[in-house]
Amino acid sequence: MVLIAQSVGALFGILAVIFGAFGAHALKKSFSEEQLKSFETGVKYQMYHAILLIMVGFNFNLDTSQQKYMVYCFLIGTFLFSFSIYGLTISASKGRKWNFLGPVTPLGGLLLVMGWGLLLYQFIGRYF
């Protein structure tokens, strides 16, 4: 599980750099200011959680079910949150907004919150 967390974290990091550069250069011409900000939010959250996944892999054995659920929340939550934002903004810029992705973004956000809650529980559990 450690290898998965770190590998996906590295993959998310690589993609965040690529998508960030793509957004800053290629999408600037076809995106509104609001769409560009939304796209950048997806990139930021993806990078934050890429780094987090790598750090979690270094600091936990990820051998308990709680730790595994935490990693799954971060993995799936990041994918749903960031990639739904990419799909929404790109499709909207083409005039065919994929509205079905609208509910996916908050679901991804909820999974991220759950992951952070499980991380907090891991820290607090060490002292009680």
TrEMBL record:
<dbReference type="GO" id="GO:0005886">
    <property type="term" value="C:plasma membrane"/>
</dbReference>
<dbReference type="InterPro" id="IPR006696">
    <property type="entry name" value="DUF423"/>
</dbReference>
<keyword id="KW-0472">Membrane</keyword>
<protein>
    <submittedName>
        <fullName>Uncharacterized membrane protein YgdD, TMEM256/DUF423 family</fullName>
    </submittedName>
</protein>
<comment type="similarity">
    <text>Belongs to the UPF0382 family.</text>
</comment>
<feature type="transmembrane region" description="Helical">
    <location>
        <begin position="100"/>
        <end position="121"/>
    </location>
</feature>
<feature type="transmembrane region" description="Helical">
    <location>
        <begin position="69"/>
        <end position="88"/>
    </location>
</feature>
<keyword id="KW-1133">Transmembrane helix</keyword>
<dbReference type="Pfam" id="PF04241">
    <property type="entry name" value="DUF423"/>
</dbReference>
<keyword id="KW-0812">Transmembrane</keyword>
<feature type="transmembrane region" description="Helical">
    <location>
        <begin position="45"/>
        <end position="62"/>
    </location>
</feature>
